[in-house]
Design a protein that fits this description.
Blueprint lengths: L2 H22 L2 H5 L8 H20 L5 H4 L2 H5 L12 H10 L2 H21 L2 H4 L5 H10 L10 H5 L4 H25 L9
Amino acid sequence: MNAQALFLSRYEPLLNYVKKTWERLDAAQIRNQHPGLNSIAWNLWHIARVEDVGVNRFVADHRQVFDEEGWAGKLGLDFRNQGTGQTADEARAVTTRLDLEALRAYMTAVSNRTRAVVSQVETHTLDSTLEPARIHQVLFEEGFAHPNGAWLEQAYTGWKRGKCLVHFSLTHSYQHVGEIGVLASLQGADAFGL
């Protein structure tokens, strides 16, 4: 099994969990927000934003999917950051304002791009380390980081592009899919049909 096949063997099940979430939960369940927790809607949006930027800006040096088809307007949001560091009020606003149909379409567009990047990426690219100036540019000039998320710059320093690919499209996403499962269960629902 080559590296691309190995990646997809973990990525496709992740997409299946997300698909089941859309199919098994209604809009009220997806938007429901327990005190002190982010909603399922917020988690789905956050997964997509992180993967879009992480894969396209840090791994492949492409434009974000977000910028190519006016997704901010379609999603109903007026900011670019990915949510880490948001206040509780900001997170609630995301949950309330998100157009869920647009979010599902955006997630599909992001996953299609990730598959394309993985099919074309070369090993030597994955072995290269992110330049500090590049990290700063993506986080602050391009608006990936929330003002309360400045610590991300130090966190990403020294990362190789291969780590970015695995983290931003697998490790990070699985963490939030686990949260989605818990958030659904708090409502008496099974998001994944397990």
